[in-house]
Amino acid sequence: MSESPTPPTELTETEISEQKAVRLAKRERMLSEGVDAYPVSLPITDTIGAVRARFGDLEPDAKTGERVALAGRVVHLRNTGKLCFAALQAGDGSRIQAMISLAEVGEESLDRWKELVDLGDHLFIAGEVISSRRGELSVMADEWRIAAKAILPLPNLHTELSEETRVRQRYLDLISREQARHVVRARAAANASLRATFASHGYLEVETPMLQTIHGGAAARPFVTHSNAFDTELYLRIAPELFLKRAVVGGLDRVFEINRNFRNEGADSTHSPEFAMLEAYQAYGDYNQIADLTQELIQNAAVAVAGSTTVTWADGTEFDLGGEWERLPMYESLSEAAGVEITPESGVAELEALAEKVGVEVKLATHGKLVEELWEHFVKARLERPTFVMDFPVDTSPLVREHRSKAGVVEKWDLYVRGFELATGYSELVDPVIQRERFVEQAKQGARGDVEAMRLDEEFLRALEHGMPPSGGMGMGIDRLLMAITGLGIRETILFPLVK
Question: GO annotations under biological process (predicted)?
Fold first, then answer.
């Protein structure tokens, strides 16, 4: 179809203001004439996508004799003498051409079209499905109405929006860019797949509080708020772990939750202060079984989104999420990469010397923090394929069971994909006496200035004292799952990310 000349990449504020004034005047004219610029309902019979599916293979200059009534947003517009054209776009990005001719609608209706319709308006059209001389699937309208008058102009759809605009005005991103729409659909497909995989293993989906009197379940800095009703300080949750474990104590042997977490920390390409989190717990499971489950969850989600465990990222790179994933011991891999043996018995002074030598800074250094920071320095960037990094230091893992055969480490893994952490899994600590000792040690670290240290949670300990079965648990960021499948940064995977 013919299109209007390409407008400049960016409209100035003056131009936007002028266009807004013109469009507001059109709205006022419609209202003064008794025409609703925002009708509550329209006699729609079809969608653009359905019409394309039925008639997409029409030969040029063909007529169907089929009348349809549909609606879409005007994304291209060209007005000529006796025949006007518009491209209408549905929410899923599918498009169809609307043709408004003098012969079909009459002079008055055609004149009103030229005077009232702008780019960005939502339009209702009804008429015969045809194919234009150029083979463009079209509706030759015998009726049209404005379904919603756009007061502000659309950006230039021929050029890419700036990242700032894409993030701050995601609705414009969704209108203009197929990839933005794809990510939303991919996220929905991934979540549906996760739920289906859990259901196949007998898990129940539950919900736990987002407002908590004590923050816990992860080493993170919380957001703080105040409840007027209870006149008490509350925290936005950093993790659902301690409540999900209460559910296991109560006899819900397999539970999971997909919901929001909030951490008052930095934001970068892999971190967002507000993010979607999956956590799951299985009675009579351990971290090995949970690793198997996590691999299945991610591979099933990849198939649901991409049709295969080999996914194609936004930059065109193919990435293989299939097969069995390596399980790499943390201490052994660190020792090999650093060229010096590092064990759970290595002293803080020895580790600090190595950290200083390679330029790694660690605040409030403990053995575990030093080991983990050194491991990230020497090993993390080398991990491209999905890899379970196994067996972490005790002092950085206060909710995890000590290893059954290796002294000084706990049964914890972190899953790394493309060099970033995607998920974590534990053999859960269920001994309330040891858990209390771990909480006390965390409280000491907090007193020394560690703002991420956990609080002693008496209500959680009381639940454990009623008996929690041996269990495995895992947590995974949904945003990061989409990063692994699409190759995008975290802000692109969140529909409306938090920005300043």
Answer: lysyl-tRNA aminoacylation
Mean pLDDT of 103-111: 96
Rounded Cα distance, 440 and 236, in Å? 22
- Domain residue ranges of the chain, discontinuous segments joined by +: 13-148, 175-325+385-493
Q: How many CB atoms lie within 10 A of CB 327?
A: 14
- Which distant-in-sequence residues (6+ apart) come within 8 Å of 471 by Cβ? 245, 248, 281, 282, 283, 284, 285, 427, 428, 430
Is there a binding annotation on residue 286? Answer: no
Query: Which tokens sit at 16?
Result: 């936007």
CATH number of 175-325+385-493: 3.30.930.10
d(CA 444, CA 311): 46
Could you tell me the CA-to-CA distances from 275 to 368, 425, 476 in Å, in that order? 26, 18, 11
Read off the pLDDT of each residue in 363-380 and give the average, rounded to a whole number.
94
CATH numeric code, 13-148: 2.40.50.140
| pLDDT for 6 beyond 60 | no
- Measured CA to CA, the distance from residue 458 to residue 435 in angstroms comes to 11
Question: For residue 80, what pLDDT is reported?
Answer: 86
pLDDT in tens, 178-195: 999 999 999 999 999 999
